[in-house]
Amino acid sequence: MPDIVKVTMETARGDIELELYSEVAPKTVANFVKLAEAGFYDGTKFHRVIDDFMIQGGDPLSKTDDPRVGTGGPGYQFEDEINLKSLGATDELIAQYEAQGYKYSSSLKSLPVDPGYIAMANAGPNTNGSQFFIVTTKPQQHLYGKHTVFGKVVKGMDVVLKIKQGDAVNKIEISK
What we know:
- Helices cover 15% and strands 26% of the residues.
- It is α+β, with helices and mostly antiparallel strands.
- The chain has helices at residues 26-37, 91-99, 157-162, and strands at 4-11, 14-21, 48-50, 54-57, 117-120, 132-135, 149-155, 169-175.
């Protein structure tokens, strides 16, 4: 896997171009690429959109009107890839999060949960699957250390800001 993977997320509102960073979150990037290349994300909807916060997608249940939308995934989960220390956290905060089940790797350089960044959505420590979110307008420091950030929008942030709940990801193209 190259250090930087280029992604085009096609939506009816326009394209969102992202760069994914293997050096920051190698397993997460490999998982996203594998799912995208298999067509897993094609036709999924942004099932959760919160103004001034984020747009969330990647749930296969969103392809239908399944009432469990928001809980779906690829059928497996994998661990977080986060170095909370690299985000400026105190030892006290790190200990507090570790007591909740989070584990951190000092060998990674984590990115912030800030506008334009893409991160894994999860249901707690080490519960990543296929769901992701893109932060829209404000830094989300309260999420630092709780979500693996693995890339950022490099073109099409205007499209991100236009996405409405129920809008579909038509296709995701990967260029390595």
